[in-house]
Amino acid sequence: MTQQRRSTTKMVPFPSHSIVPERDVDKLPVLEARHLGIEFGGLKAVEDFNLTIGKTEIAGLIGPNGAGKTTVFNLLTKVYQPTSGTIMINGKDTAGMNTVQANKLGVARTFQNIRLFGNMSVEDNVRIGLHNQVPYGMFSGIFRLPRYWKQEKKQHERALELLSIFGMQDMASAKAGSLPYGAQRRLEIVRALATNPSLLLLDEPAAGMNPHETEELMDSIIAIRDQFQIAVMLIEHDMKLVMGICEGICVLNYGRVIAKGTAEEIQKNPTVIEAYLGRRKEDAQ
Hints:
Layout: H1 2-7, E1 11-14, E2 18-21, E3 31-40, E4 43-53, E5 58-62, H2 69-76, E6 84-89, E7 92-93, H3 99-105, E8 107-109, H4 122-129, H5 138-142, H6 146-163, H7 181-193, E9 199-203, H8 211-228, E10 231-235, H9 239-245, E11 248-253, E12 256-261, H10 263-268, H11 270-277, H12 281-284
Parallel strand pairs: 5-10, 5-11, 8-9, 9-10
Antiparallel strand pairs: 1-2, 3-4, 3-6, 6-7, 11-12
């Protein structure tokens, strides 16, 4: 089902010499990264990175280990400040912003290594993501005024609603650290969604999942895009997942973009094949 849904998407040219899904061509891109780069001690970890993501696109960022993929995520979420280039989120320049400001602007992420609060409940982990949507002030919170309890009820209902995306609402009271690995992965996605993003960055979301869980994850990512009308960008080594749901794919190698295109174009690209498999023996002689 996921393969069929992805393959019906038509990618069309966008004015910034990129491609976006046809449905997004008349909308402001959620992300425009222009000539983005960062150096660590003179070493260029990412160089001249350019990427446009449509408003509701599911995009993939792939490449060999050490290619700079997570570094790009760290730049987009302002964990790192770029040494060159521009990051535009929904048309707004993020220059000088920190991670909290980038999140409020609409960028949320999960991590390669799960970062949940293991001793807290599943629901409380989700409610941490809802922190920027609490309308009552400190006074109402301290004295437990009616406004406080009204909003607490709304937060509880919203947390359960988000957990239901993965059928996890019955786990709300369980400790996050007691969940199976795959469920912890899904909980981290729910917590990121709780921040109400317009761009959701998933760093290896299928890591440690079995094939059945991966298939469910593919359907869930599509459902999240459709339900919330947001863009999703993922780093992933599972090529079945990437080629199954990603509409536009960007390939990194040694910190530079070596290819961009649809799944079909990337699969046939000789530069991408060489980056992953190395040069053929007859070519190297």
